[in-house]
Amino acid sequence: MQKNWWQEAVVYQVYPRSFQDTDNDGIGDLKGILQHLDYVKNLGANVIWLNPIYKSPNDDNGYDIADYRDIMQEFGTMADFDKLLEAAHEKGLKIMMDLVVNHTSDENHWFAESRKNKENKYRDYYFWRDPKNSREPNNWKSNFGGSAWQYDPKTEQYYLHIFSKKQPDLNWDNADVRQDVYGVMKFWLDKGVDGFRMDVINLISKQPGLPDDPNADKSTVEDAMGWVANGPKVHDYLREMNQQVLSKYDVITVGETPEAKTEDAIKYTGFDRHELEMVFQFEHMGLDWSKNGLGKWSTNKVSLPELKEVMSRWQTKLNGKAWNSLYWNNHDQPRVVSRFGNDSEQYRVLSAKMLGLLLHFMQGTPYIYQGEEIGMTNVHFDNIDDYKDLETLNAYHEIVQDKKQVTSDQMMAYIHHSSRDNARTPMQWDATKNAGFTDGTPWIKVNPAYKQINVSKALNDPNSVYYFYKKMNELRSQYDVIVYGNYSLLDPKDNEAFAYERQLDQQHLFIVTNFTSHVIKRNYKVYNDQKSRLLLSNYDDDLKRDLRPYEAKVYYYEE
Ligand code: TEU
Questions:
Q1: Which pTM value belongs to this model?
Q2: Among 97, 148, 186, 245, which lies 20 to 30 A Cα-Cα from 479?
Q3: CB of 259 closer than 6 A to ligand 1?
């Protein structure tokens, strides 16, 4: 079996804009991250993934990069970054950068050149096309609403943008584009960074001729990526990237791959493929989406059998062939305790631990998103103007104002459930003003829950979610079966309990979780096994067959 450090690692994701502000401009910064390296280390994570910190006009919070070799002014300077990297390495923490190369900012030098005239050497770095019957060149939609094409009167052509119009797509079929991207990667790797999370990396190869999407009319805004995902040359490009760059460094890589199925993931991450090490898949994130054509905008609850089916399929299909990433949360997803758990005062801590345990004992590399380790919850702003995320704001305008598909109140309920800003409110450090995030005015309001839910409180409470996550990370470093064991699901149709087993040689784990707020009775054979012992639980004692609200347990035995 393949064994690599990045399989054994735990990744902690930092959204720099909302982590810690040190200069009181209301925006988090690199110095703020430096202050909290010990916090991350003490939790037991080994790698920090930083969301984009490059120079950017911030149309999409840094996912629109103006200069790949410079730092966003609000976040600090290159000297601050070098210091952060050095300090992290001294503490044994690795740093993983976000690599956003499906598109750039329209303020990137490459695009500024490209739009000047048709003869410019950078023209072909992007997709420029003539109008078709005085309209857009094809029917592709932007993932953030509207057409994926923007007309530029200067040269009377359109350019392609799968995301906002300030995020033009790079043309990876142009070999110079690829060499320039590899140059950027080498620049950061030679500085000593330890890997990349690659933004929508499976969108980089567009179909030749950019054909119309046959389902464009039926599909929702959120399906806009389906037609461009996993394109014909994507594996050629990733292998070239691996051969020319990644293979020369010992790094962690994870590709963000919306629309990837397990078969695709095996191609991207297969141990013998030399492309990427793991991908972020989206199937479990789509289970509570709208059934009425509104994409992610819904208040649906996830069905437990469906969640089991998706999680288990990824576990078993990739086993022995490729490697999973494990995540419930990131900067694009609502808070998991509010989404799949129960964020009421009574059950928040229990259900946050339950969800953590369920995920972290599966096979794969776990990712913890800032605040998840203290059970941070969704935010419910009453006023649409308090939201900052362009996806949320565009959807509100399109669905409520333009198309009048739902009322404003209904849309606000969807936003409370699904908006990306649920994840982006400032990190809650303590109960002082602005949760200890800033002494200035935060760029987005703090979640009012901060008085009850914050790091300072968690560190003073031995029963906090924080110490539970810490314990899980400790166990991971002690038991090989947690990292490498195979997986089998029990009782796929049980819609209250989620139970599974892991096995590696003689080592066995049995995991059971109660997804409800009432007591359920279940008998498992592990209870009769003299050799089994409880490794971890979110209750103080073990009633075996009686599973209390959101109870979660792991047993270990050898055989
Ligand atoms: O996300 C791609 C992506 O799949 C999202 O746009 C997703 O559809 C949406 O967030 C669901 O709410 C990546 C980044 O993670 C995201 O923050 C960026 O906005 C996007 O790419 C463009 O770079």
A1: 0.98
A2: 97
A3: no
